[in-house]
Write a structure and sequence with these properties.
InterPro entries: DUF4508 (IPR028019)
Order of helices and strands: HHHHHHH
Number of domains: 1
Radius of gyration: 14 Å
Distance between the termini: 31 Å
Oligomer: single chain
Largest sheet: none
Structural class: mainly alpha
Number of strands: 0
Number of helices: 7
Length: 100
C-alpha cells in the first residue's frame, strides 16, 4: 500500500485519470469494464512498458491478493492523501447505479 501511495504522489494528472478508471472498474467490474475496454490497455509494442505501466500491473496484482478489509484500508489511506481524488472515485462509482 505504501508503494502505491508513494507512486500516486508522483503520477501526472493523466496517470491519475487512468488509475481512477482502474479503481472504478475494480469497484463495479460488471458495469463499466467490458472486455473491449480491457483490451484497449493491451498494447503490442516494440518497446518495453513504461514505469507507470509496470506500476499499474503491480498494483493490480497486489489489489487482487488483498482481502476486502485491506482494500478498504487502502482507499482510506488514499483518501487521507488526496480527499478530492477519492471523492471523485466515489462519484464515478455512484454514477454507475442503474447501469447494466
Amino acid at each position: 500500500m505504501k508503494c502505491v501511495l508513494h507512486w500516486f504522489l508522483g503520477w501526472t494528472e493523466s496517470q491519475w485519470e487512468c488509475f481512477l478508471w482502474d479503481l472504478v472498474c475494480k469497484a463495479v467490474p460488471g458495469k463499466v469494464c467490458s472486455l473491449e475496454s480491457g483490451l484497449e490497455h493491451l498494447v503490442m509494442a516494440d518497446h518495453p512498458p513504461s514505469i507507470f505501466q509496470c506500476q499499474l500491473r503491480l498494483w493490480d496484482q497486489w489489489f487482487q491478493s488483498w482481502a476486502e478489509a485491506e482494500r478498504n484500508m487502502f482507499l482510506h489511506r488514499l483518501e487521507e492523501t488526496d480527499p478530492s481524488f477519492v471523492a471523485r472515485d466515489y462519484q464515478e462509482v455512484a454514477g454507475t447505479a442503474g447501469k447494466l
